[in-house]
Give the backbone structure.
Amino acid sequence: MQLVPAADGTDRPAPACPSPVRFFSLDEHATANALCERLLALDPDCPVPVVARIDARLAEQDTAGPPEGPDDGTAWRASLVALKADAVERFQSPFSVLDGDRRDRLILHVRDLGTQSWHEMRAEQVWSLWTGYACTAFYSHPFAWNGAGFRP
């Protein structure tokens, strides 16, 4: 069992993954899960495995990164490391264990940078990467179709 740091300084078991993680490390998976929960305002009982779907897509190299930048998998990893580093620097805890308000502040900081650099990446490209993948993973699942009024 892998342990991840908790906000109180102790270690706790890593969150369960709905399917085997093939691309992300368990730490990256926890950060990506916390990020996507905030980007999509997901309820804790949401049946859509957003990060598992992103992980599978990256593992299968089903990507289309910008020609002038790193491939999507490299960009995802670098952005998750940077997000965790910002959380530790600002709040002394990994991103995955922060409360929603603190997560939001860090996420919105990246969004608000626009064309400026964030950890040697263009913030707007990181924002586009995160939201594009998260929305595609969520809205390509039948559960989301029901919320949009689509009835198969």
In short: The first strand starts at residue 3 and ends at 5. The longest helix spans residues 72-91. The radius of gyration is 15 Å. Helices lie at 26-39, 50-59, 72-91, 100-113, 123-139, 142-147.
